[in-house]
Amino acid sequence: MRSFTYHRATDVPGALRAITAEPNAKFLGGGTNLVDLMRATVERPDAIVDISRLPLTEVEELPDGGLRIGALVRNSALAAHPLVRTRYPVLTQAVLAGASAQLRNMATVGGNLLQRTRCPYFYDPASACNKREPGAGCDALGGFNRGHAILGTGEACIATHPSDLCVALAALDATIEVESLRGIRRLPITEFHRLPGDTPSVETELAADELITAVELPPLPFAVNSRYRKVRDRASYAFALVSVAAALEVQDQTITSVRLALGGVAGKPWRAHEAERSLLGSPATDPSFTTAADAELTTAIGRDHNTFKIDLARRTIVATLRQLTTTLTP
Ligand code: SF4
Question: Which CATH architecture has domain 227-326?
Answer without folding.
Answer: 2-Layer Sandwich (3.30)
